[in-house]
Design a protein that fits this description.
single chain; Quinone Oxidoreductase, Chain A, domain 1; Rossmann fold; six-stranded parallel beta sheet; about 25% helix; binds NADP nicotinamide-adenine-dinucleotide phosphate; binds zinc ion
Length: about 350
């Protein structure tokens, strides 16, 4: 067992404060990672503030983790000391259930071990995430990060990257497909970059007119202002796929009207309250409304390799860990361009 430095909250209303986490001794299949950087995902805010219910405290959030391997267990084959490594939203699963066998460990039927605000597979040991200087994770849930990528800017790939890559792949996005991305934040800007790299014709659908120039430089071909009702008329029936990343309640029906015949809309954002969907929004045009949760470990590695090949990383603002509370406030005011990343050497 080692003691790791961390930043934690003790309740849904508490500010962040320094905290110590016990990390287990490095087991035969484990790697120990010195965390260099950790991204701030909007899911961190939802969970810190207990917006989804059932949050466990003290909580050390963080599931966009990158760093260097500092120790490996006797049976580790994928990593050597000094290698770059990444950890995303999961640290373990049962590995034998039908979901795990299909490499969809996020849907493990015994319950995946999420990186924080969860438990290890023993259902007892609480998990603590990446707002910390080190972590010990089974190599099967540890990802290879290419040295070709800027390490701090690669951190958000571990959640924002895989969460947007996975549905684009599931719907077989290819050159010429018309993809709409709703909400230009951490997930949205990765969706734009990845969809554009797959050859799609990308339209950014945003409430923020000030983000148009950024959307275009990130790779969007078109921009639609969603506060203007004319946008919904002009773009009606035009998209093969819509990736919805909005973190707050909003009317899905309006966006379903933008799909072509048999087009699909994928929900990624997890607003705390439900929103009604009219049957007619789906019936007229055989529309598909679905969701997507992060991605399996093999697909996460595929995404990291795709990003290394295409030179894709996140656009980040690197901040000291002491500014995490301010970063949350800025994200809630829609003031992030486009991901905050914590510099762990400031811990
Ligand atoms: P973020 O950086 O805060 O971005 C959210 C974006 O949504 C904002 O930039 C804004 O874009 C738009 N938005 C925010 N409030 C809005 C409102 N009231 N009405 C309309 N648009 C609004 O958040 P993120 O880290 O990308 O996360 C987005 C959501 O995805 C969160 O709910 C998070 O929990 C969830 N998430 C899900 C998964 C999954 O596996 N499904 C994984 C990670 C995160 P514009 O300014 O362009 O309008
Ligand atoms: Zn996340
Ligand atoms: Zn399983």
């Amino acid at each position: 067992m080692t003691l790791a430095k961390a930043y934690a909250v003790s309740s849904p209303t508490a500010a962040f404060a320094p905290f110590q986490v016990e990390r287990r001794a490095v087991g035969a299949h484990d790697v120990q990672i010195e965390i260099a950087f950790c991204g701030i995902c909007h899911s961190d805010i939802h969970q810190v503030r207990d917006e989804w219910g059932g949050s466990k405290y003290p909580m050390v959030p963080g599931h966009e983790i990158v760093g260097r391997v500092t120790a490996v267990g006797a049976h580790v084959t994928k990593f050597q000391i000094g290698d770059l490594a990444g950890v995303g939203c999961m640290v373990d699963s049962c590995r034998t259930c039908p979901s795990c066998e299909r490499q969809l460990e996020q849907f493990c039927q015994k319950g995946s071990a999420f990186t924080y605000n969860g438990t290890e597979m023993d259902r007892k040991t609480l998990t603590y995430g990446g707002y910390s200087d080190s972590v010990v994770v089974d190599e099967a849930f540890t990802l290879k990060v290419s040295p070709k990528l800027d390490l701090a800017a690669a951190a958000p790939l571990l959640c924002a990257g895989i969460t947007t890559y996975s549905p684009l792949r599931r719907f077989k996005t290819k050159a010429g497909d018309k993809v709409g991305v709703v909400g230009l934040g951490g997930l949205g800007h990765m969706a734009v970059k990845i969809a554009a790299a797959m050859g799609a014709e990308v339209t950014m659908l945003s409430t923020s007119p000030s983000k148009e120039a950024d959307a275009r430089s990130l790779g969007a071909h078109h921009f639609g202002l969603t506060s203007d009702p004319a946008t919904f008329k002009a773009l009606a029936g035009s998209f093969d796929l819509i990736i919805d990343t909005i973190s707050a309640p909003h009317d899905y029906n309006k966006y379903l009207g933008l799909l072509r015949l048999e087009g699909a809309m994928v929900l990624l954002g997890v607003p705390p309250e439900p929103t009604p969907v009219a049957a007619g929004s789906l019936i007229f045009g055989h529309k598909v409304l679905t969701g997507s949760l992060i991605g399996g470990i093999a697909e996460t590695q595929e995404m990291l390799d795709f990003c290394a090949e295409h030179g894709i990383v996140s656009d980040i603002e690197l901040i000291p860990v002491q500014q995490v509370d301010q970063a949350y406030e800025r994200m809630l005011k829609n003031d992030v361009r486009y991901r905050f990343v914590l510099d762990m050497k400031t811990l």
